[in-house]
Amino acid sequence: MGRALVAEGHSVRVIGMYSWSHLAPEYEEDQGVQVWRIRRPRPRWGWLWGRYRIFRAVSKWSRNQEIDLVEVADYSGAAAKWPKLPVPVIIRLHGSATYFAKELNRKIKNIDYWLENSSLKRADFVCSVSQYTAKQTQRAFNLPLNSVAVLYNFVESTPPQVDQTRSNEKVVFSGTLTSKKGIISLIKAWRTVLTERKDAQLHIYGKDVLSEANSLIRQTVCKEIEAIQKDSVYFHGHVPREEVLDALLQARLGVFPSYAESFGLAPAEAMAAACPTIYTERGCGGELVRDHKDGLLIDPDKPEQIAEAILRLLQDDSFATQLGTAGQDRIREKFSPAVLMPQNIAFYHNCIAIFSLRRSAITNLKNGNTASNLSNIDSSGSNRNL
């Protein structure tokens, strides 16, 4: 997003908090995007000092008229208790801790809810990467209806290399190895796949993490794999994004049986690479993939359904090619930069204009001047067309 905005002639600054031992530099430029990394102090409550330093930097930039708006994510409530700034604060819903806890029927930590609720209530504008995430977040935090604009994540189509051909047996999964991503269900389904396609290969790309039982997910996955199946499953770990994209260009299919998502960049990137894609029917799955048109949707709680979808794409060449082509067309038509960048830029301009009108109206009211009704300003400048 930042790189695309810079390419359009805008300036972009990114600032975030990192661990004390993080190896990346405190400042660098990435294709024109200016990046600042704030080191989190080592004391237990160091994260509070880190948050304050981030706000202090953002506040200085806004007061010096170096920026026109601030965007923060919903996760962890980065804008909680921020004072008013001379520029609008936008929160983009990618999936908060509260959102995912509700989706997975898990207990919500009080501190997470408080920070995220405070941040959302402080925001001047809110947008979301999917309709589903917008709706569920509104319910979780009691946000006003129709107050959230939907701006999907965009993905660039990935053209194949010259003479690149697809494997007939390679299946790819990419994403952090968590139960939320459906990796356990996929491994259970893989047993069934191998009964009919002994040549099939499952290639798993993603960072390993600790499970709720305090063991690495890969260890849990391996326990699900019988000795005869181990040669068919390959763990590649956390690799550069380019390596994952190359794997998707070569794969017969990509499978992403998630239990909860806010949008789903991994399946979107698979579709962009014309890789036949299996995605979850839950949450926002249907907003990205239209079942049997440009991908297949499955229930992550049903390994037999996952296996059936994998086998169909492994065995039906014509159907696999059809879905791969349709999936790439879907990305170009609905989720490409050419389609979504103008919407994002229009949304930003709209937020700046409405924020300016509100400030002018409030100033006029304080000075005793006649001012337009704020509700009229809001409705005339709404983002209903975005």
Question: How would the blueprint of this fold be written?
Answer:
Elements: H1 2-7, E1 13-18, E2 27-30, E3 33-39, H2 46-63, E4 70-73, E5 89-93, H3 97-103, H4 110-122, E6 125-128, H5 131-141, E7 148-150, E8 170-174, H6 183-196, E9 201-205, H7 217-224, E10 233-237, H8 241-250, E11 253-256, H9 265-272, E12 277-280, H10 285-288, E13 296-298, H11 303-315, H12 317-334, H13 337-366, H14 374-380
Parallel strand pairs: 1-3, 4-5, 5-6, 6-7, 8-9, 8-11, 9-10, 11-12, 12-13
Antiparallel strand pairs: 2-3
Helix pairs in contact: 6-11, 9-12
Explain this structure to me?
The protein contains 14 helices and 13 strands. With 386 residues, the protein is of the alpha/beta class. The strands form three sheets. The chain has a six-stranded parallel β-sheet, with helices on both faces. Strands 4-5-6-7 form a four-stranded parallel β-sheet, covered by helices on one side. The radius of gyration is 23 Å and the shape is globular. The C terminus is likely disordered.
Number of helices: 14
Instruction: Give the N-to-C terminal Cα separation.
Output: 17 Å
Shape: globular
Topology pattern, helix = H, strand = E: HEEEHEEHHEHEEHEHEHEHEHEHHHH
Strand content: 15-25%
Q: What's the story with the biggest beta sheet?
A: 6 strands, parallel
